[in-house]
Amino acid sequence: MMGQSEKLQKIAAEALEQGQVTMVLGWCKKDFWWQAPVAFITDPASAARLVWDPFTVYNPVKYLLDNHHCHEKIGVFVKGCDSRAVNRLLQDRRLEREKVVLFGVPCDGKTDAAKIKAAFPGRKISAVSRVDEKLLVDTDSGTETLPAAGYLLDKCQTCRHPNPVVYDVLAWEKVEPRPGVDDARFVRVAAVEQKELEERYAYWLRQFDRCLRCFACRNVCAACNCRTCIFDQAEPRWIGKASDLADTLNYQIIRAFHVAGRCFECGECERVCPADIPLQELNRKLIKDINEYFGEYEAGLDPNDKPPLGTYRGEDPAGFDES
Ligand code: SF4
Ligand code: SF4
Ligand code: SF4
Q1: Are 101 and 75 in contact (CB under 8 A)?
Q2: Which backbone phi and psi does 24 adopt, to 5 degrees?
Q3: By C-alpha distance, which of 322, 58, 277, 76 is closest to 87?
Q4: 319 pLDDT higher than 70
């Protein structure tokens, strides 16, 4: 029976051979067992590099911003979260639908390498693979088996859309969302909300004090797709270059508000943050408030809708002063 990686390879090779696309974005294996970075495949023979494994978490969609001008048509493999990024770019008019062929990949949740490493202290791990609901971990003293559900990335534990919401071809059968994801979605937000105002402020100051302003959270985010980000502008300068908490707060507040109503909850900003800042608590607080003030809304599900903060209706609770 054809394995999942082989299925992706076949889809990509055929699309390139038949001239449907001139490049395919998927995932490949490189130097480390815990990484499966984005691969840029331009000839059918190289499609054999593509993999689907526990670490194919990276979102290839943002790379379309850099590449879609140079290619007639690009094929891109999309998990549920990646597909919502496609809708985000379509909604923001940063991508044309006819420029991409979407290969949908129903997603069983991706593995947190840090949790695997913590499970085998002092042991050398050479490979991790997944068979159904089990992880097989090759270590220097033999192969160990772990339950996949216990080692998922945090973002995958609260994923409501593991199946692509937009696609042209589906690689395999759709999967069921994990039980309890709806209940888990705002649990961390509620915990912060319970703090008194001053305690909450102190909590966020402690978090943001660790921020390096590396901009990884911005760079990875498909909702952050302005042609010129205000933080890259030389004139006017919105934040200084020195390490300064006031400037960091400025950055964090602006980032959070620029994605309000547009964040599609992929959790990538939090996952890539080298300082472990709980950015999803902020993103989801804004989502929760938007749901309460403007009605339930999930970003990235429909390229034709309008985000709540991108429109004004007469019945909106905050008035619109026309004087
Ligand atoms: S967030 Fe959902 S679609 Fe994305 S990698 Fe995790 S389980 Fe898969
Ligand atoms: S990824 Fe983390 S450390 Fe880097 S700018 Fe964002 S919040 Fe700060
Ligand atoms: S703000 Fe974070 S969770 Fe939201 S879309 Fe951007 S990367 Fe994903």
Answers
A1: yes
A2: -125, 135
A3: 76
A4: no
Return the structure tokens found at 150. Answer: 């216990």
How much distance in Å is there from the Cα of 268 to the middle of ligand 1? 10
How far is Cα 206 from Cα 211, in angstroms, rounded to an integer? 10
- For atom 8 of ligand 2, the residue with the nearest CA is 211
Distance 55 CA to ligand 1 centre (A): 11
Cα dihedral value 235, 239, 241, 246, nearest 10: 160
Q: What is the mean pLDDT of residues 210-230?
A: 95
Q: What is the mean pLDDT of the chain?
A: 94
Distance set, CA 184 to CA 3, 154, 188, 236, 298 (Å): 32, 10, 8, 41, 16
Which run of H or E residues covers position 268?
A: helix 268-272
> What is the distance in A from the centroid of ligand 1 to the CA of 98?
25
